[in-house]
Amino acid sequence: MSKSKRSTVLIVDPNQTQSIEVNTQLLRHLKPILMGLGIATVVLSIGVVSLVIRNYTTTKDNQALRQKVGDLEGYTSAEVNAKINELRKSEKAVLELQNYLQERGAFTPPPQKPIDDGKPNSAAGGPALKISAPMPFMGSFAQNTQNLLEAVKKMPLGLPAPTEISSRFGNRFNPFTGGGGEFHPGLDFRGEIGDPIKSTASGMVNFAGYQNGYGNVVRISLDNGYEILFGHMSEIDVRQGQTVHAGDMVGKVGSTGRSTGPHIHYEIRKDGTPIDPEPFLTLSSR
Ligand SMILES: [Zn+2]
Predict the structure, then answer these.
(1) Could you give the percent of the chain with pLDDT greater than 70?
(2) Which residues span the domain enclosing 66?
(3) Number of domains in the chain
(4) Among 87, 169, 175, 220, which residue is least crowded by beta carbons within 10 Å?
(5) Residue 149: inside a domain, yes or no?
């Protein structure tokens, strides 16, 4: 009977080192298992550690993202609420405008007389027109606004150049002598030679040329009895008969005619009579 070999296993402890004897055969079998277990433990530990790190990082990222989303939500809702409030105000203004136009009868053609009752009428003639139904109140917002815009474009509005007034409408001293009263039928705007002059309304050029006193002048007639006039130009950029739109350039600032220096003489005439253009410069209440 062969004597089974035995190996000594040392358990090293700093305080007390022990030795035990183990069957060598058994130890040989145990060795790969122990090594395998060791490797598995190391791999598992790495896995666990990396999972913990990843989880930690993800949690931090999530917190940061949640914070950002929260911030964005707060910001967006404040922004959106402000816009909604603005829209409500605009809607209210449009409704008031719509109401006003409705009350003024802007959407209802005037009643056409006579109503055909078969009886003779001593004050009638021409084609008979039917009374059309008033426009539906809410149905044609955009169209009504467009019509209003077209009407507004046919009224003089705004400045012929973004500059200051140098002389007002009405009685004034003679700008050449400083004495003797005279009537100034328009507004003067300071300017530099060559500055663009823009039409303050849409209409048709009824005069473009030289006229004593006014120098180079452009007159535009609007189809509601109004006329606008720009004088003392250094250059005229439109011709008689031409259609111009509000904002179109009609010429350049100059000092032609009876003028003490470069400026625009701007007139508004209603049925041929000059009126003060100043109330037409802005819709601002200031
Ligand atoms: Zn003037």
Answers:
(1) 87
(2) 6-70
(3) 2
(4) 87
(5) no
Tens of pLDDT, residue by residue over 100-113, are: 777 777 777 666 65
Task: Tell me, in angstroms, the distance from the centre of ligand 1 to residue 204's CA.
Answer: 22
pLDDT in tens, 217-270: 999 999 899 999 999 999 999 999 999 999 999 999 999 999 999 999 999 999
Q: Is the pTM of this model over 0.70?
A: no
Kindly give the distance from the C-alpha atom of residue 186 to the centroid of ligand 1, in angstroms, as a whole number: 6
- The verdict on residue 135 lying in a domain is no
Rounded to the nearest whole angstrom, what is the distance from the C-alpha of residue 149 to the centroid of ligand 1?
30
Does any domain span residue 113? no
**Is residue 273 domain-resident?**
yes
**Which of residues 45, 70, 95 is at a domain's end?**
70
What gap in Å lies between CA 263 and CA 253, rounded to an integer? Answer: 6
- Give residue 240 CA to ligand 1 midpoint distance, Å: 22
